Amino acid sequence: MREKTYFRVLLALVAGMLTFTALINYRLDAYGIFRSDYEKQVLEPNKNYVKTKYVLDNKEKYQSFLFGSSKVGHIETDFIEETSLYNMCYSEGIPADWLDTIQTFLKNGVQIDMVLLGLDEFSFTIDPESHAHDLLRLRYSQLDWFQKMKYYILKNPFDVYNFRTVQSMIRQDPYYLMLDDLWNTGITYGNDEYVEANWETIKNSPAYNKPIDFYQKDRVDETIEDIRQILNLCRENKIEVILFFNPVHHATYALHEDITNKAKEQLMEITSYWDFSGYNSITTDNFYWYETSHFRHNVGRMMLERIFALDCGVPIPDDFGVYVEQIEY
User: Residues near 257 by Cβ (< 8 Å), separated by ≥ 6?
Assistant: First the structure.
């Protein structure tokens, strides 16, 4: 009889703990998985999931998509008027992720006319498996109801992201939608006006002396194969592809320049692309950078001007942006 009582008490405690955990995680929803109203989202959500879901819920709204990491978030896609172009940037987006998202779109009936793919130096060094359990970067296709429960409802309610969410709420930090235009262009806002007004102070920031190293391992061969699969998929579905290397701050570029150059050499064997990386007037001038990872909006405008022959109101240095032709054998 006593054992049954202990068992019931234990069962009640476990049920109580699970209920508490589920309620806290669902209520905070720090990664933005369950909410439909993002007005009160505090920290960055899982944008791979959120943006993919948004497009699937609005299949007729966009015909073209810009894929890349958070860096391409500062490319203002609304300058391109010929097509409805949505910026699908998400944290540490790499070709394996983009392939999965494009497959998800096509599988669910999204009509795609054009995709732009913005490569980074870390596109060839980050292992997609590192995203497999990363709650900020799990793919939409990986999150059925069971996986959502496992990763987002039954996770530790006292983890760092929940803690930071509560901290931000207490401090009354700006809501996330003040930083990202999730429901229109998909772009990430920048504080360019502040940078330019305070440049004399900002230019001495120690942030410009700290290169950002995303290196995990050399995955050039594997990433080239991911890109090849994207090209084949797009060819089969009559989708135009524009590929480009993002500008990389010179301090970050120098860390693994050999791997990036190896990737460029292999890439030109399968397709043509625009190259904004390397050492040029933009990548060596801190004025065009928020820190050593993200370029400013004026740089994104230069890239659009170079690729699409647009007038976005900014002059382009002659050494910024080179078109690399595919090697024909």
Answer: none
- Taking the C-alpha atoms of residue 173 and residue 166, their distance in angstroms, rounded to an integer, is 10
Does the pTM exceed 0.85?
yes
Q: By C-alpha distance, which of 138, 160, 144 is closest to 30?
A: 160
Let me know: does 19 contact 50? Beta carbons within 8 Å.
no
pLDDT, one tens digit per residue, over 88-131 is 999 999 999 999 999 999 999 999 999 999 999 999 999 999 99
> How does pLDDT run across 49-80, given as a tens digit for each residue?
999 999 999 999 999 999 999 999 999 999 99
Q: Position 76: which residue type?
A: E
Burial 34-73 (b: 16+ CB within 10 A, else e): eeeebeebbbbbbbbbbbbbbbeeeeeebebbbbbbbbbb
Distance between CA atoms of residues 15 and 103, nearest Å: 39
How does DSSP assign 64-96, residue by residue?
A: EEEE-SGGGGGS-GGG--SS-EEE---TT--HH
Q: Point out which residues pair with 118 in neighbouring strands.
A: 244
Given a cut of 80, is residue 7 above it in pLDDT? no
CA–CA gap between residue 252 and residue 275 (Å, rounded): 16
